[in-house]
Amino acid sequence: MAMPPTRPAPSPWPAASSASEPPLRYDSLTVPDAQDLVFGRAPYPLRCGLELELGAGAVFPEVNFTLPPIAITDATWPDILAQYREMTEGVLQRALALQAPGIVIEFEHLPPMTKHPQWGAEITAVLRQLLERAHEAGGLPCALRATVVDLRHEQRPPHLRDGPLWETMHRSFADCAEAGAHILSIESVGGKEVFDEALLRGDVPGLVLALGVLAPRDMAWLWQRIAEICDGSGGAIAGGDSACGFANTAMQLAGQRLLPEVLAAVVRAMAAPRSLVAFENGAVGPSKDCAYEGPVIKAITGRTISMEGKSATCAHFSPLGNIAAAACDLWSNESVQNVRLLSGSAPQAFAESLIYDCRLMNEALRRGQERSLRDLLVDSDQYHSPQALVISPQASVAIAKAIVAAPSDYQRCVAAAQTAVGLIREAVTQGDLRLPPVEARWLGRIESALAGLPSSEGKLLEETAAEYAHLFDAASYGL
Amino acid sequence: MDLTTIKQAVIEGDDKQVADLARRALDEGHSAESVLNDALIVGMGEVGALFEQGEYFVPELLLSARAMQAAMEVLRPLLSASSYQPLGKVVMGTVQGDLHDIGKKLVAMMLEGSGFEVIDLGTDVAPARFVEIVEESGAQIVGLSALLTTTLPAMEATVSALREAGPVRVKVMIGGAPVTSAYAQSIGADGYAPDASSAVALARRLVGK
What we know:
The structure holds two protein chains of two kinds.
Chain A: E1 41-48, E2 52-56, E3 60-64, H1 77-97, E4 103-108, H2 111-115, H3 117-138, E5 142-148, H4 164-179, E6 183-186, H5 192-201, H6 204-231, E7 237-241, H7 244-255, H8 261-280, H9 294-301, E8 306-308, E9 330-332, H10 346-367, H11 370-379, H12 386-389, H13 393-405, H14 409-429, H15 437-451, H16 457-468
Helix pairs in contact in A: 1-3, 1-10, 3-4, 4-6, 5-6, 6-8, 6-14, 6-16, 7-8, 8-9, 8-14, 9-13, 10-11, 13-14, 14-15
Chain B: H1 4-12, H2 15-27, H3 32-52, H4 58-75, E1 89-94, H5 102-113, E2 117-120, H6 127-137, E3 141-145, H7 152-165, E4 171-175, H8 181-186, E5 191-192, H9 196-206
Parallel strand pairs in B: 1-2, 1-3, 3-4, 4-5
């Protein structure tokens, strides 16, 4: 019979945000056994929002939605507010009708909503009010996540640590917290100016420069500031970041056969140390839904994670539909346009899908059969794609072990990549995973490039300077 | 020297070797036009075929394009103006209010690799800026990208601004996750491309090549 994971020692972080704490550096795993990496249970459950407890034996839906084609201007603002109200009311109505045990609503900003912080705050306040009503009148435990847009990459090279773009973003975070957001998040893009170039070239040293040197430096700086905002907000918590602009870009390009899948799989592993940095600098979870590296983060930190898969096809396709649910604490639809379907609005329809997905997982938890369902979710996907393989609980724990054993962010990134290559190669050798010859060639190419990397980030910076130094502002990374 | 050696180096994307081989070929008496037409262009054609067959991905395509460019640096001073013209000039940008870059960047890189001259204006580009650069550059094509549903209206505004600015009617091609062929027609764009490879084919059609 499946046993729940043993609960470890008390959290190194308080449940709320933690900017006052010194940065943490994980050197061991909170969940060292892949058998214990399972949906709905986290070693450090998180109470947030309006009586919602995540990771304590249940999975909850996280619903996100966006506008149909419409310009965001002063003139259209009343319509936009009305649409957000309608979408949220519709989703909460489905949650109440289906007796969902709880729900998270994500308000993911569109760029003008961060550029004009009062707009982001206004929508946040409306959504918070609707959640309070559903909580008070319907007894629905719930929370509101506000995800701010990283405006800093409007400028090339991005100027990350000061200037009007950062100041506006900072104000947007603060205003959303003040307006009632329970969880603050971002899909930050420090290092992306190098990553995009390196990815299109399939250049491993460039990818390591972006994900192992630049991105972690920005993440540490940024998340300390987000945690400070949360500390001063009187209730908001610092959720987590996503390597969406990195690993999901690779996944989408691989899906279009523009890049090899094995490269996207290795990039996923390389991105995990970057996302971990948020949790070492004040984030407490739940991590962002599109962070498919989430299981690695959960294995290391024991914190709750949000994931998305088969019920996020409204936003994008992926080869990870089932396996992504294996260790989730929140189960998300990523984003859906507010369009009318036969059943009702698309946000309502996808909320309902998520609620049923969660019901199944929660029934498995109730019966103590969560590992059986988890294994079905994993086994139904993991050998169909190297990208699925590297996010299985077994692979996630292996990658997590390699990350915490490495002494620097640079070496963490390289170790994660090498472990992913090893896992893919092992699955191929055992005959479990079949790679077309062109993919197998790329796996060898990636392996050789990793073996040829210099021993230190200083040397990597030197060796890649001719190709990439002009693309980034060294001072923005404290270099 | 057999020019297939240069063609093979283009296919393998070895920029240093291609440039060296181009110099050697010239030293041995091959004309610049011959190196261009019989080695570089033929090589890039095979690279394109390998890409279409799924044997090559974008990185190989870009390496080969870079190798061809390295050889062109050697050949260009010797080529007559008429012997090597870009297929056309394209102004690319992500429309106002939208910060997504990589899809547009990919299209720009593939257009360059296919012989177009590309002016990449970046992201969050105002309609007036597109008009200004088209007028300055004499570009035949404008490529517009958008990833957000809420920035589609900016795409329409850009097409309108370009049409109003006429007199010469620049061709407009559009793409991005929320964009469809029907939408392209509805805003008066000349074409829609669902992905980067189709964008190259569309650009060729738009300039009649």
